[in-house]
Amino acid sequence: MADIIAAISTGSQPCAIGILRLSGEGCAETAGAVFRCKNGKPLSDAPDRKLVLGTLYDVQGREIDQALAVYTRGPHSYTGEDTVELQCHGSPAVLTAGLEALYRAGARPAQPGEFSKRAFLNGQIDLTGAEAIIDLIEAQTVDMAANAAAQVGGALDRRLRPIYEGLTDICSHYHAVLDYPDEEIPDFKLSDFEERIRSDRAQLEWLRATCDRGRILKQGVRIALVGKPNAGKSSLLNALVGFDRTIVTDIPGTTRDTVEEAARFGRVLARITDTAGIHQTEDRVEALGVERSRAAAEQADLAIFVCDAAVPLDEEDRQAMAAAREARQAVAVLNKTDLPQRVFRVQLPFEPIFAVSATRGDGLDQLCGWIEKTFGADLPCDGTILTNTRQAEAVGRAGDALSRALEAMQTGITPDAVLTELEAALEALGELTGRTVREDITNRIFERFCVGK
Known about the structure:
The chain is an alpha/beta fold. The chain has three domains: 5-110, Gyrase A, domain 2 (2-Layer Sandwich), CATH 3.30.1360; 155-211 and 386-437, Four Helix Bundle (Hemerythrin (Met), subunit A); 217-375, Rossmann fold, CATH 3.40.50.300. The protein contains 15 helices and 13 strands. The chain has helices at residues 27-32, 92-104, 114-121, 127-138, 142-152, 155-179, 194-209, 211-219, 233-241, 284-299, 315-324, 364-375, 389-410, 415-433, 439-446; strands at residues 5-8, 15-23, 35-37, 51-57, 63-72, 83-90, 108-109, 221-226, 259-265, 268-274, 302-308, 330-335, 353-355. A seven-stranded mixed beta sheet has the order 3-4-5-6-2-1-7. Strands 9-10-8-11-12-13 form a six-stranded mixed beta sheet, with helices on both faces. α4 (127-138) runs antiparallel to α5 (142-152) and α7 packs antiparallel against α13. The protein is flat.
């Protein structure tokens, strides 16, 4: 990687500090062509990882900012190469002019994620750590940030490495005995490794089971509000998110499509979907809305059946209850408790049931508290929670391969067949951490990054 890359590493909006980042052999000389140290010395002579005050110039040689520079020599940098960061005032005009000057001095524009890709290719981070960088940037909760930060630090790799190395030892032992029969190598007995393989499989199954928790950490709990028209779903959504997100009227069927908004319940992020009232209709537009309501309930982590407690239950309520119970979990809300009650808890097949008045806010604390407790931190956010489908798929393939290996051992199949499955598990784990990952997978991962990261 002889070429020098450069990019604005901070956002495009005006801010207090903006950073121009360079990486590659000779980047200090390139940066030194547009940044002059106040002490009169070349930037390439600056102490390692020490801030140096200086002046930034544009392509016409005009002074455009007083800035700081830090020169980090490889391999002890983020990318593993020589890097320079110019810390300027965060004017987009200044940053753009400084970047153009760096291009004129010999740097080329960095591609999305190219700094992190170089860090991966230079062995500074593994692939799980690289993926966690974008998760950390996009984290919307403290728990997600904590899990991503731990993965950037190699927490997931540290958990997987003993499994990978143990399987490598088994395979290498088998091939050593096979390839060098005259050498004094201990006999290979599959039964000696059965307990280890079972333990490895259990750990992989535990990791795969964290994927749902990882999705909730990353994207939020999917909550669908389900009920018949005019049950108060839109009023409940507005109350939960804290502002008038949807139109509320006394006219049934005001909401004809799904409406989504984010909300927080303590440390829990949620994506709440207000759905069209479930009922029989000949109107094609309303029918499409009802169909989407049922789909939203089926895909939800939690469906909240919203019941108008001031009106006796009817067939539309029963249809909405059936739709809500299609979700992974369902609860009920007896809404409009500020009016005379006509529906009671014993009539609803849900547990728990919350009595609320969405318009006055009565009972909302109990509902919000239950959501936080139910979907809160039930797993340690220590970097061992899988947060994307690629990770879960690779862990799943590795675990399935170990299951097949154990089944083969029980049926007395020859060792070579068992070793084939162990090697399949190794390949899947290698894809997860980047040991054996294909170039197209690597490129796809880093394409998710923004320029400058």
